[in-house]
Amino acid sequence: MDFQRIRDDDEAIRAALTTLKTTTGIPVTMYATLLSDNRLQITQWVGLRTPALHNLIIEPGVGVGGRVVSTRRPVGVSDYTRAKVISHENDRHIQDEGLHSIVAVPVIVHREIRGVLYVGVHSPVRLGDKVIEEVTMTGRNLEQDLAVNSAMRRVEGGKPGVAKAGRVMNGAEWEQVRSTHTKLRMLANRLEDDNVRKELEILCEQLVTPVRVKQSAKLSARELDVLSCVALGHTNVEAAEEMGIGAETVKSYLRSVMRKLGAHTRYEAVNAARRIGALP
Fold first, then answer.
1. What residue ranges of the chain are covered by domains with CATH 3.30.450.40?
2. Fold of the domain built from segment(s) 169-275
3. For 31, which of 15, 135, 220, 266 is 20 to 30 Å away at the CA?
4. Which of 58, 45, 127 has the alpha carbon at shortest distance from 91?
5. How far is it, in rounded angstroms, from Cα 53 to Cα 93?
6. Span 69-84, pLDDT tens digits
7. Cα atoms in the Cβ-side hemisphere of radius 13 Å centred on 125
8. pTM of the predicted model, to two decimals?
9. Which PANTHER family match (predicted)?
């Protein structure tokens, strides 16, 4: 058994759960690992009041998590035990914990679902679109961390000497890379000198070169600028102010990007862009 692999991934998952709870203020965050038989098991959690959900095994297709795996899309319910979009085999466990509203998103690495990221509250309140977007973004960041862990293990497996020299960046360090990428793109956008602007754009490309693959969708420079802002959590208005354009123009770029990448939301577009190496 690869204990280093388990430890690295567990640390990334724990960091994602803690960050998500801090960012959203939602009391419960959980992660369920997809097992080899397509069942889920809740393996990490923050904020649970009881042991009712500890290490719970979830059968294929059951509950919120099962629906997430089958659809490969985020799922949210505002009253779990009465929700019509999910099955209810695990209602007793949810009731014992006292959860009402739950949002869950898939964690997909190399096109395969690795697990499900959950948030939940113990009161009858609806978790809005902003929360779903935040959970989705955290899930995408976790995907990248797990993918990097996987890539580093492959390199270290092929070249034993690399293991001592190499180090996997943590979530905060990846976030700094992403922030730097966006700032460089915004700086390039303000320059009148074409040569300097092109040099900065090359630097932006170098930040994503290690994970770049052949792009099936060609994104324009302005579309990448918008996506860079969205990836940092900017609203359309904030992105417009950063780029010096109108909010409606930002919306237009986003619509174009989502169409090219086959994405349904702005955050799906960010994730898709990262998958093809267009964003760090």
1. 3-152
2. Arc Repressor Mutant, subunit A (1.10.10)
3. 266
4. 58
5. 6
6. 999 989 999 999 999 9
7. 11
8. 0.59
9. DNA-BINDING TRANSCRIPTIONAL ACTIVATOR DEVR_DOSR
Rounded Cα–Cα distance for residues 4 and 9 (Å): 9
Residue 103: pLDDT band with limits 50, 70, 90: very high
pLDDT mean over 258-280: 81
> Looking at 17-26, 96-105, 132-141, 177-186, which range is the least confident one?
177-186
Structure tokens at 212: 């770049």
Are the C-beta atoms of residues 123 and 25 closer than 8 Å to each other?
no
Residues written for the chain: 280
CATH of 3-152, one of 3.40.50.2000, 3.30.450.40, 3.30.470.20, 3.40.50.11290: 3.30.450.40
Q: Which two tokens stand for residue 164?
A: 């001592």
Residue 121, both tokens: 């509250």
DSSP 8-state symbol, 84: S
